[in-house]
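Entry 12.
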Amino acid sequence: MFRFTFVCTLITLASLTHAGESTKAGAAKKIASELAAAMIKGDHAKVVDRTYDKIVEMAGGREKMIRGIGELAKAMEAKGVKFHALNVGEPGDVLTEGKFTFVVVPTVMVMRVPNASLTGKSFLLGISLDDGKSWKFVEGAKLTDKAVRGKVLPPLPAQLKLPAMEMPVIVRDK
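Predicted 3D structure (tokens):
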């Protein structure tokens, strides 16, 4: 009987741990989706508020980053480039290193460019300081360079694998 009770307890604990990880990943996906919606709507303040603090700091602070994103968006629109969609996929494993919790959230961005649409796969790296209750993000394209990662990110868990960046697909208008 003891053995049965012990096994049931282990199974319960394992499922509770998995449920906790799933809740953290769910929170990350929800906030990443808010970030994606803000990007498409042009809500630059919300984009900055969902961006990892070190990136905001390196950009000169919240207000300067909001202005910079706004100026970039206007310049892109003047050239006929517009974000059409930013789809958020299912988060990967939630991992912890020191006081930081991490998760990779895959994304697919669709942009309109003159005479074509461009679809690119990327990811957001979620970083949490409160064990996955709240999340801030770094866009994956910025993380391909190890030197940049070292300046921007806290130490990453050894088992965290960042996805390789893929070339975007361009579909010309007919």
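Annotation: The first helix runs from residue 2 to 41. The chain has one domain: 2-172.
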